[in-house]
Amino acid sequence: MTFAKREKIYRGFSFIFGAGIIVISYYIGEFLSYLIAGFISPAVMGMLVLFALLKAGIIEPAWVEIASNFLLDNLMLFFIPATAGVALVPFITIKDQAAAILISVIISSFLVLWIVGYIIEKFENTKLTNDNLL
Amino acid sequence: MNPLLEILFILLTVTAYSIGRFVYKKSKIMLLHAIIVATAIIILFFELTGNDIRLYEQNTKVIRYVLNLSVVAFGFLLYKNYDFIKSRGLSILFATFTGSLFSIISVALISILLGADITMVVTLLPKSITTPIAIGLSEQAGGVVYLTAVIVILAGIFGAVTGTWFLKIMGIKSGIAVGLSLGSAAHGIGTAKALEMGALEGAIGGLAIALMGIFTSILIPIAVPIIHILIS
Fold this sequence. Notes:
The complex is a heterodimer of chains A (about 130) and B (about 230).
Chain A: H1 3-35, H2 42-55, H3 61-73, H4 75-84, H5 98-133
Chain B: H1 3-27, H2 34-49, H3 54-58, H4 61-80, H5 82-86, H6 89-113, H7 118-124, H8 131-141, H9 145-169, H10 175-197, H11 199-231
């Protein structure tokens, strides 16, 4: 067996194994989410579960690396069924409020982008100056 | 759920996405972002073939499930960038909390001023957070759930498409600030954009989704009675 072939098989197994761990994390997350009455969604809870498992050393980062990178690299693709749902909105029923919706969402989005970025940037700058002084 | 349609729609989605990515790469025009082009292709496909797009909605369960798994995968990015994030824990918490507060107050005030009714205002409140949490909150507050889902997607696309440009104009440059901003204002779609810039930006975007979800879940139940008073 050539090295390249062996590498391919290893990556394939690693992908399946990693995907399995991610699926298990998701179901643990779903259970925890159920326990707190859905206050945090199953997927976000699953993310915290995967992080906790890695941090506790129960699973090795290398085990989930290939599967995680695959999922993250194609993240936009997985959103398409949700975005296509836009076509289902009966726009005629919200026509009168369309301007209010669009303008408030646009301004509010810019505001959130700015305030979050601004606060972090301020903290980062003071951190840098402090580091320089020390 | 029809397994044959599921497979067919996975192929359709991947094709539409590949075309979208190609168009965006060649044109570099924000409005031709891969996700917008791909969505347009899918909608056009159903329009032209005369099929109901509800068919697509109902038979893309596999992709929707994988979307959940990719949110879980952010746990891996968080772990890899843990030390960096930990060193900035307080500023990240403070920034996302303020972001959540600003999001709720601004969207409520502006939509009220522009004449939206109470149902519409509460429908808009969770616009900056990830869809599953947003839907739950909208329902709890008495909003129109499917409309919340659409607004969340629109806010996500809008934030992802204009975010990097807007932040550059505002002089916000550091990777951590850009990642956290995109994740806070535009949840998963913004984070996908942040991920294109780097793994650290992506990890912080993922963290922003979680924190925004948590803070907004706490703030909306407090905001709703106040909005009721404001409107009446």
